Amino acid sequence: MSVSHYSEIESGYKHNGKSSDIDSEDLILLLKSNHVNLGDFFDSVKDAYIVDEKEEKIEFLSRELYKAFNEANYTKAEQIRKQVQQLPYAPKSLYYSSILIAADFKDNMMTLDPMIKSKIDKYLYQSAKWVDNTEMLVIFGNSIPMFDKNTMILRMDQLIRGYKNINTFPKGVQIRISNLCINYLYDVILIRKEKDYIDGALQLIKDLPANEIFAFKK
């Protein structure tokens, strides 16, 4: 029995507004008649609720971090970072992204702990196929400002080679990669005042359809 099904029984209603086929009292009688241990049953339901609460917490913090990023709101990003750091079940993408975004808003990652940089770098590139991993791409996109020039060129070369046939990928992937290229170009041209290795990123963007969903109109 799923948590959502149990919730319907517990409340007496289904999501479409119709009465549930069974209420809580009938459920207990049914369990007893089938010799189901009530303690074990409700423990399993409780554990399922906890899992759902964790997922909801992660989704909520992810949305809030995204909002803080779009609003360039350092105070909010820092608050979210502190909350995420206290969650032992936080996924690495959210954990590291919260650190990176807050550090970027603070001082463009100038004072980001070198140990944190090293951990992120090792985590990201523990596999040669990091460019195929959605979580890795999320972290990479947020970590662009922390790389030195040579490392940045190396990583972008891997990304560009991995997605050279960008139009063969699903739209969601195209959007993600185009955003990464935009972030990279912004950092290299406007922040670092460099012009090295921008042709590959520009070509990837150029190969995308002329659609504003890919970060800009061409």
How does this model look, in words?
It is built from 10 helices and no strands. It is mainly alpha-helical and 218 residues long. The chain has a domain at 3-46. Helix 3 (38-71) packs antiparallel against helix 4, helix 4 (74-85) runs antiparallel to helix 5 (92-107) and helix 7 (134-143) packs parallel to helix 9 (171-191). The longest helix is centred in the first third of the chain and has 34 residues, at 38-71. Residues 6-20 and 214-218 have low confidence and may be disordered.
What keywords describe this structure?
218 residues, elongated, Transcriptional regulator, single chain, disordered C terminus, mainly alpha
Secondary structure layout plus pairing:
Elements: H1 3-11, H2 24-33, H3 38-71, H4 74-85, H5 92-107, H6 114-124, H7 134-143, H8 149-162, H9 171-191, H10 199-206
Helix pairs in contact: 3-4, 4-5, 5-7, 7-9, 9-10
Count the helices. How many? 10
Give me the count of strands. Answer: 0
Note the gap between the termini: 51 Å
Coarse morphology: elongated
Structural class determined from secondary elements: mainly alpha
Reported for the largest beta sheet, the result is: none
Can you give the mean pLDDT? 79
